[in-house]
Design a protein that fits this description.
It contains 5 helices and 8 strands; from the N terminus they run βββαβαβαβαββα. It is α/β, with parallel strands linked by helices. The chain has one domain: HAD superfamily/HAD-like (Rossmann fold, 3-Layer(aba) Sandwich). A 6-stranded parallel beta sheet has the order 5-4-1-6-7-8, sandwiched between helices. The radius of gyration is 15 Å and the shape is globular. The model has no long low-confidence stretch (mean pLDDT about 90).
């Protein structure tokens, strides 16, 4: 059996708005700071309706750095999935020097999800707002979409669009609806 296609979504700057700290884009550290991006829920619903599995893959080193608790991160993800209907949220809690395989731009989170959910990475997409997201997607063998932001290079992706709504429209036009076989437990 061949695998199913998936959409891998970075969290901050894609599904929710970034929080600006010291002039840099950052992650929300509390549920009160979480602002779902305009059109995010609708875009994910469109992917789901077209037969794609949908996953959040996010670097969250603030837990390791002691700037937020794991419980606060869980609360943010619980709030996110109440609005944005994804199949699973995967977070790397490691810091830059930890040498893990899951921290983007490495592809560990995508490869683990692909094995667990029987995903066809060649038919899948990684959507992010940072260059490390597109590097991660390419390393895993997925196609990539970069959301154009002032804080990224705007290059290295298969396509650059302004927001998730336009990313969904482009992907669904380029890679139309797919069959949805029953999920295996």
């Amino acid at each position: 059996m061949s695998g199913r296609p998936a959409i891998f979504l970075d969290r901050d700057g894609v599904l929710n708005d970034v929080v600006w700290r010291d002039g840099k884009p950052a992650s929300p550290r509390t549920v009160d700071e979480l602002r779902i991006a305009d059109g995010a829920a609708e875009a994910v619903q469109a992917f789901n309706a077209a037969g794609y599995l949908t996953f959040v893959v996010t670097n969250q080193p603030d837990v390791r750095r002691g700037k937020m608790t794991a419980e606060a991160l869980d609360a943010i993800h619980d709030a996110l999935i109440q609005t944005v209907p994804v199949n699973e949220v995967r977070a790397c809690l490691h810091d830059n020097d930890d040498g893990c395989d899951c921290r983007k731009p490495k592809a560990g989170m995508l490869l683990d999800l692909a094995a667990r959910w029987t995903i066809d990475l060649g038919a899948s997409w990684m959507i992010g707002d940072m260059d490390r997201d597109t590097h991660c997607g390419r390393s895993a063998g997925a196609r990539t979409v970069l959301l154009g932001r002032d804080y990224n290079s705007g290059s290295g992706a298969d396509v650059v669009v302004p927001d998730l709504r336009q990313a969904a429209a482009w992907i669904l036009q380029t890679s139309p609806a797919v069959p949805t076989p029953a999920l295996q437990d």
